[in-house]
C-alpha cells in the first residue's frame, strides 16, 4: 500500500495493493484491495470495495463496498455506496448514483441526477442530466435526453436530441 496525505488509508487493516494520495483519501478502507484513491477525500468511505479508481476531490466519496468503478472528476460518482461496474468521467458525472449499476456518464453533469437506473450510457455535457430512476437509455451529445426523468429504453444521438422527453419510453 501507498498512502500520502493526512489520514490517507487511516483504517487499513489487511488490505493490499492500494494507493491513496490526498487528505482522507481511502480513509475508511479496511480490507478493500487494488484501489486507487487520488484527491481530497477520494473514496473516503470505502471499506471493502475493491478494484476501484477514484480520481478527483470527493470522487467516489460514499463508496463502501462497490467494486470495479471508475470515477474521474470533482464529485464524480460521489453518492455511490455499493454499486459496481460504473464509469463516471467529468465534473459531477453520475454524482447522485446510489443504485446505478453498469452505467457510463462522460461529460460535465452527465447522468448527474441518476439514482437507481441501470445500464445507461450518457456521453456529452448535460446528457441525461435529469434522469433519476430510468434504465437502458443511451444519450450521446450535449444535452441529449437532458430533461428525461423516468423514461426508459431511449436512444438519443446528437446535440439536444430528445431534450424535451421527460417520461417517454422506447424512443
Question: How does this model look, in words?
Answer:
It is a single chain. The chain is mainly beta and 171 residues long. It is 0% helix and 18% strand. The chain contains no helices and ten strands. It has strands at residues 2-4, 19-21, 36-38, 53-55, 70-72, 87-89, 104-106, 121-123, 138-140, 155-157. The protein has a ten-stranded parallel β-sheet, with no helix packed on it. It is elongated, with a radius of gyration of 16 Å. The mean pLDDT is 97.
Please specify the SSE layout and strand pairing:
Elements: E1 2-4, E2 19-21, E3 36-38, E4 53-55, E5 70-72, E6 87-89, E7 104-106, E8 121-123, E9 138-140, E10 155-157
Parallel strand pairs: 1-2, 2-3, 3-4, 4-5, 5-6, 6-7, 7-8, 8-9, 9-10
Considering the chains and any ligands shown, give keywords for the structure.
171 residues; mainly beta; 10-stranded parallel beta sheet; 18% strand
Brief digest:
The protein is about 0% helix and about 20% strand.
Radius of gyration: 16 Å
Q: What's the order of the H and E elements?
A: EEEEEEEEEE
Q: Low-confidence stretches at least 5 residues in length (pLDDT < 50)?
A: none
Number of DSSP strand runs: 10
Mean pLDDT: 97
The helix tally amounts to 0
Q: Which structural class is indicated by helix and strand composition?
A: mainly beta
Shape: elongated
Proportion of beta-strand residues: 15-25%
Amino acid at each position: 500500500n501507498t498512502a500520502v496525505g493526512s489520514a490517507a488509508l487511516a483504517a487499513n487493516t489487511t488490505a493490499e495493493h492500494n494507493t491513496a494520495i490526498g487528505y482522507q483519501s481511502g480513509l475508511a478502507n479496511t480490507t478493500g484491495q487494488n484501489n486507487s484513491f487520488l484527491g481530497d477525500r477520494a473514496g473516503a468511505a470505502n471499506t471493502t470495495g475493491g478494484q476501484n479508481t477514484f480520481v478527483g476531490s470527493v470522487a467516489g466519496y460514499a463508496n463502501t463496498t462497490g467494486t470495479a468503478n471508475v470515477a474521474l472528476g470533482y464529485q464524480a460518482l460521489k453518492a455511490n455506496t455499493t454499486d459496481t461496474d460504473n464509469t463516471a468521467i467529468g465534473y459531477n458525472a453520475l454524482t447522485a448514483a446510489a443504485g446505478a449499476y453498469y452505467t457510463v456518464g462522460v461529460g460535465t453533469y452527465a447522468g448527474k441526477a441518476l439514482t437507481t437506473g441501470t445500464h445507461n450510457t450518457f456521453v456529452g455535457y448535460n446528457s441525461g442530466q435529469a434522469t433519476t430512476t430510468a434504465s437502458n437509455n443511451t444519450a450521446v451529445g450535449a444535452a441529449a435526453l437532458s430533461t428525461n426523468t423516468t423514461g426508459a429504453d431511449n436512444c438519443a444521438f446528437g446535440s439536444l436530441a430528445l431534450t424535451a422527453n421527460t417520461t417517454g419510453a422506447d424512443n
